[in-house]
Amino acid sequence: MLRVYNVVGVAKTSVAAVSVVCFVACCFAFGAPDGVLRAELVAPVLLACIAFQAVALFLLSAAESKAAASAIAVLDKDCDPVSFAKDAARIRRHRPSVGPAYFLLLHAAAVSLACLGRFEEAGSFFRRMEIEFLGERNGAERIREAAFLCDAARRLRDPDGLERYRSFLVGLLRDGRAGEDASRARRLVEAADERERLEAAGDAAGLVSLCEAQIASLREWDVRERVELEFARAEQLEALGDLAGASEGYAYAVERGGSLPCAREARARLEGMAAQTARGGAS
Q1: Residue 62: how many CA atoms within 13 Å on its side-chain side?
Q2: Do the domain assignments include residue 101?
Q3: Is 250 inside a domain boundary?
Q4: pLDDT at res. 71
Q5: How far apart are CA 170 and CA 185, in angstroms?
Q6: Which residues of the chain have pLDDT under 50?
Q7: What pLDDT does residue 283 have?
Q8: Into how many domains does the chain fold?
């Protein structure tokens, strides 16, 4: 789908270029000696060009967003960072003029590469995210982008970047921004802070409760987030001695986790628990 995304981007550029050429040609026609006579013929053509550009760009923008969403679903719904990372380089070939799709693709690329341990490559996408964030003027989009930057920095193990964009996010939320993105971003910041506090305190039961609360707030298509939370919850349940609950969480991660690292780790944990049970039965 990244190939489709790039093709649509090229088409948008081409439409804009053709529209400019048509506009310039019409201007020359108006400026000709018999421009008054030409105006009756040229004006409809100019209006038709403007209408064509508006309709074409609207349809192409919708196609671009759909292609980007399909590409991101490879990571967020199919949980396949390996497949997404294979095509990640294609994202660099096209930068659309408007819309959040480009930023979301950069985030997906950074997450996919970080999942595979390719932190240097992931860092290049993170830096591009930073550039896009600095150029964003829409308040709601800045909130969402700051939240994604926090997530990427955490996965890249970049404490300075995490603190920088957490501060940005807290400041934006303090300005009284409203809406779904602001509420979701606020929950992400609060959950991340609470997780750090509970981990520092070694509170496994508290971490289980936090994971369960986050899982309950997820949307249907947030499969990757759920897999990661189910795995984190299972780890804490295992530490608490609840092997049945841990097995359930690990099984979910294996079933839905695709090529995510936590899915591989969950499979290893289940095999280890099965081997331990077998040894216990044999004795």
Answers
A1: 5
A2: no
A3: yes
A4: 87
A5: 9
A6: 35-37
A7: 55
A8: 1
